Structures are given as C-alpha cells and as structure tokens.
Amino acid sequence: MLGNDNLKVSKFCRFIDCSEHAIVINTLYRSITQLDKEVWNSCQSPSRITKGMLTSDELELLKLAKVLVHKDVDEINLFADWLQRVKRDTSSIRATIALTSRCNFNCSYCFENGYMKKFPSDMKRKTASVIVSWLKTFALENESREIKIYLYGGEPTLRIDLIDFLTRKFKCVFRPLKIKVEFYMYTNGAVLTKKLLNIIKTHNFKHLQITLDGPPDIHNRRRPFRNGEGSFDIIFENIRRILKETKTRVLLLVNFDQENYQFIPWLLDIFKKEGLSENAEFAFNPVFRTQYNKNHCSRFSLSDAETYNIWRSLYTSTLGKELRCTPLTIFETGPCSFRRASHLIFDPKGNIYKCIGFLGTEEFRVGNVNDNFFATIREIEKQVSFEPWDNEKCSNCVFLPLCLGGCRFHSYVESSNITDVFCHWDLIESVEIPLIRHLVQSGKAI
Amino acid sequence: MAKKRKKKVKELITIVKAPKSLKRTADFRADCMTHRKCD
C-alpha cells in the first residue's frame, strides 16, 4: 500500500474555497471532489497532505478522486499521451458540410461575410457525391464506427435538395458498412417546409442549432432577412413545430453583446411559459469580433470582464429557471475539432478545413476531395500535430488540459498566425470555476 | 499524525464527479470555445 511519502497533490488540481467546504477539481481527469472543512484545514497547503495529517481511508479516497497521485507520475507525459489519443481517435468521424455560402439573413454581426462575398458558391450534386465517397474511404482506412454529419452554410436550408440527397446518400453508403450515421444541422431556423420537416423526421436528426437573440424587436434588429423584414415570429413557430412534431432536440444559441444581453431572460421565460423546454437546450456565445463585423462590434462589444460576468450569470440564471444548458461547462468536453484527425469541414467546392472559423482561408485548407487522398491526410496530420502549449508557462498551468494553449482561430484573428498561444486563463477562472462552484453548491449534476 | 475525526470519511470527502478514464477518449466530446459548437 502506498504511504503518505509516495503521494503528491496532482499538478492539475485547482482548489476552490467555499464557505462550508472546499472543492477540488482535477482538470485532466475532470473529477470534482468536495472536502469538509475539517479535511480542508488539514491539507490547505498541499504539502500537509503528505505529512500524516490524513487517515489512510482519507488518503485512499483522495487517490481515487485523483486529488492525490503517486509522486513519480510524470503528469505532463500523462497529459500529452491523453491528448495524442484524443487527437488520433478516429472511431467517430465528424463531418461539417457547408452546402452553400449563400444566406437569406443579413445579421449585423456575421463574421462569415467576407468568406461569403469572396466565394459565393453552391455545392454541386457531383461534389456532394465525391464528399460522401471521400468520407467512405476515410472511414474504411480508419475503421471508424460512426459518422456524424453536421449540415452548415451560409444557410443550409437554401439547399433542401442537397439535404435530401446527402441524407439518403450517406445512409445508402454507410449502412451496409455497419457504420452508424447521425445528422445534425446549424440553421437560422427560418425555413421549415413540409419536405424539410419530413427529412428531419425520417432521418431522425439528433439536433438542430438555431439562433434567437432575444425578444422580437431585439432579435429582428440583429438578425433580419436580407430584405430587412423581421425573422423572430417565423423562427419561433418553426421551433415550436420541430419540438412538437419530432424527437429532434433544439439547441438555442444566443449570441450576446451590449445590445441584447439584458433582454435574454425574456427569451428563457417565454420558452418555459410556452412549454418548449423539454427537448430544448440553451447555449450562449459572446459575439466574436473579426475584420468582417467591425461596425457592429465597435458599437456593442463588451470588455472581457463584462463578457465573463454576463456569461456566468446567463448560465446560472438559465439553470435557476430549470432550463438546460449545453455544454454545461467545459468540464464535460474535450479538445476541439481543429485538434482531432477525424473532424473535418467541407466547403461548397469540396475544399477541406480543420476549423469552421478557417472556412475560405486558403492557407489553412488541408486539401480538396478531388486531390490525392493520402496527400490530404498528411496535411491534416500536420495541422493536428501542432502543439502551441509546449512552453514553460502552459506546461505549468493547472488549466492546461482544458485550454491546450487556446483556440487557434482566436490566435489567428489576434495575431494573424496560428502558432501563438491564446491563453484562456481569465475565461476559465472567471466563468468556469464560479459555474462549477455554483453547480456543486446547488447540488446540480455536472 | 492524523486527528481522530468526528465524521465518517465519506462525509468528509465526497466525490461529486468521478474521474474519467484517460483511455476512453469518446468521453471527451469536442467543444469549440470560440463558437460554442459542441457535439
């Protein structure tokens, strides 16, 4: 049995002091442990843990919780091995397919404007077919067991013909291979023809991500149709139909900034009041400033501190109303698509990227579905292999397994290259830690 | 030497969320911190 001298507090443990007790989170193992003040007082300084201040039962439980680990464990190596496994796990493919770069909306903060203006295009049926074949090759080469298809744009519902074609084609190609197929869609929610509703039901779409930015007047100002008309009423009615007539979940994304954050609680209340919360989940996103939405952002951007305060209170008030949020915290989740070999984004011309943010940015294109397959795989590997966290500051950071050196797209927007670290310390400290404290203290599942 | 406690060990230390296995990569679903698009 390991004695006290053979143990150390994990380098990935963050202690959170609360009034009644303390909480310890391990950011690598994603464990959360609550310590009574009596035990907390014995180990407030990590060195006291290993100096005989705890009983053997207490030590065993702390080891189980990954608060304590063997002193000889190289935790950076452990983290690096885990990251490599996640990066190269190809058992599940995630393919995001942009059917068109056109959109029927004229959102004031759209960050994709530049791409759409530079490359207005629609996917040809032939390209869609080649994408399916390419993914079949990828799945067979990698012995994948499932494929998740995310339909994207521009606005994908402008191409219901392609949605129909692709859903049938994917099932026809992948089912005989015994590879599970699931469908998802990112849509503004304004188009829901009988045909589309039927497709969603027939192919059992898992979820649709739809954006509503607040009450009708606020939403309509931010997200009108191209002709200037408001979209709220149509979208709300379509959401109602999807929730009432299908088993598909609706993920309600709310993009927030100075213009609308005060009005978001109205939206939460109306969903509850209308009885629409059962298969609906909320997510909140601060409007992200790029070169394409400077006009809007110069008027309505929030400071980082304001963003974190508001983001935190949006999550806690949503939970307080007994509504669901997803993801609840980044504790539930792992490395993003950019870092995963089996997560790919396809534009209307069949070009392949590793991040939605990089759609249309030539220097980050890893290939095209008509290129040599293995040459593209080598390019994917190059981007996936990149490790911005391999520096002293990141290696000593307790949040390393959550942050990984930060978002590559964010890094590119800030400094025009993807090699710089983009530190998420403030975000995690200001939003995720208080949220975890709140969830533990209110007894909610994490 | 460890003090004699008034409470039982499971009252003193509660595992609220058990550690994930680092081998089960499917338990770490993808999340985008910028665009908040998650599996």
Task: Describe the protein in words.
The complex is a heterodimer of chains A (446) and B (39). With 446 residues, chain A is an alpha/beta fold. Chain A contains 18 helices and 16 strands. In chain A, strands 12-11-10-9-8-7-6-14-15-16 form a ten-stranded mixed β-sheet. Chain A has a three-stranded antiparallel β-sheet with strand order 2-3-4. The longest helix of chain A is centred in the N-terminal third of the chain and has 18 residues. Chain A is globular. In chain A, 47% of the residues are buried. The mean pLDDT of chain A is 91. Chain B is of the alpha+beta class and 39 residues long. In chain B, 10% of the residues lie in helices and 18% in strands. Chain B is built from one helix and two strands, in the order αββ. The longest helix of chain B is centred in the first third of the chain and has 4 residues. The relative contact order of chain B is 0.13. At the A-B interface, strand 4, helix 1, helix 3, helix 4 and strand 11 of A face helix 1, strand 1 and strand 2 of B.
Write the layout of secondary structure elements.
The complex is a heterodimer of chains A (446) and B (39).
Chain A: E1 7-9, E2 13-17, E3 21-26, E4 31-36, H1 37-42, H2 46-49, H3 56-64, E5 68-70, H4 75-88, E6 92-98, H5 113-118, H6 125-142, E7 146-152, H7 160-174, E8 180-187, H8 194-202, E9 207-211, H9 216-222, H10 232-245, E10 249-256, H11 264-273, E11 280-286, H12 294-300, H13 304-320, E12 324-325, E13 333-334, E14 343-346, E15 351-353, E16 367-368, H14 373-385, H15 392-395, H16 400-403, H17 408-415, H18 425-441
Parallel strand pairs in A: 6-7, 6-14, 7-8, 8-9, 9-10, 10-11, 11-12
Antiparallel strand pairs in A: 1-5, 2-3, 3-4, 14-15, 15-16
Chain B: H1 9-12, E1 13-17, E2 29-30
